Amino acid sequence: MYHPDYLMQLCHISDHAVRELEPSFAALPTTPYADGQYRLRRYSVVRCQDGDVHQMQHHTFMQSQDINHHQGGVVRNFEELTSDVIHSQGLFELCQLFKDNNELDDEQDIEIHQMRVITLDDITPVSPEGIHQDGFDHIAIAAIHRENVQGGEILVYKDKTERPFFSLAMNDGDVALLDDHAVWHNANPIRPLNPRHQGHVDLFVLTAREH
Q1: Cα 153–74–145 angle (5° rounding)?
Q2: Using a CB cutoff of 8 Å and minimum separation of 24, what contacts does 163-168 make?
Q3: pLDDT in tens, 84-119
Q4: For residues 78 and 41, is the Cβ–Cβ distance under 8 A?
Q5: What residues have CB less than 8 Å from 193, skipping those under 6 apart?
Q6: What's the CA dihedral at 13, 14, 19, 21 to 10 degrees?
Q7: What CA–CA distance (Å, rounded) separates 73 from 204?
Q8: Which of 33, 72, 201, 202 is geometrically suited to a Cys-Cys bond with 65, CB 3.0 to 4.6 A?
Q9: pLDDT tens sequence across 155-199
Q10: How many Å apart are CA 100 and CA 86, to the nearest integer?
Q11: What distances in angstroms separate CA 51 from CA 48, 56, 89, 104, one per listed residue?
């Protein structure tokens, strides 16, 4: 049963978790989808139980067109998170935080997107969907690292037609938990601080639809 008790909350994972997870983003692949050349991604469905993260059967990913106006109705097939990331203490810490704050049980599937958004030319969208909801009960956006970028602030709205009530350039280890039924979210685009070098933002997005 879904029991919302917050619009959003800001939490943190440890510096150790951040440092353990950060190197794995360098190996994220491009994808053949509309955003695939600048939003590099892996995706897995997991459960967090018995002191570890357990990878579930491979899933494709699709959102309906009424949820995702950018790529709705497109079946997307991403490479899985690597075994080293799945079984890392850092990912377990992040999944346990998500599970505890949303009171999820041991049998709850958690969908994880590991993403690197890289700067292309000048301005690159972090959230090409614009102001949106994801169609889940719970969402977490975890910032792992940013390099040579400005912008990328997370924006949270009570109503998608109004100005955001929350804006934050998230630091390494910040985790924003959102009630996807109650708020909308977006992110500002990014651009490189030094245009001679590529910049990037690394993040995990966790979602759960309660069973």
Answers
A1: 25
A2: 166/8, 168/10
A3: 999 999 999 999 999 999 999 999 999 999 999 999
A4: yes
A5: 148, 149, 150, 199
A6: -30
A7: 23
A8: 72
A9: 999 998 999 999 999 999 999 999 999 999 999 999 999 999 999
A10: 18
A11: 7, 16, 9, 15
The angle formed by the CA atoms of residues 107, 207 and 201, to the nearest 5 degrees, is 135
The three-state DSSP-derived secondary structure of the chain is CCCCCCCEEEEECCHHHHHHHHHHHHHCCCCCCCCCCCEEEEEEEEEEECCEEEECCCCCECCCCCCCCCCCCCCECCCCCCHHHHCCHHHHHHHHHHHHHCCCCCCCCEEEEEEEEECCCCCECCCCCCCECCCCCEEEEEEEEEECEEECCEEEECCCCCCCCEEECCCCCEEEEEECCCCEEEECCEEECCCCCCCEEEEEEEEECCC
Q: Which of 28, 46, 61 is nearest to 96 (CA)?
A: 46
Any bridge partners for residue 208, and if so which?
A: 138
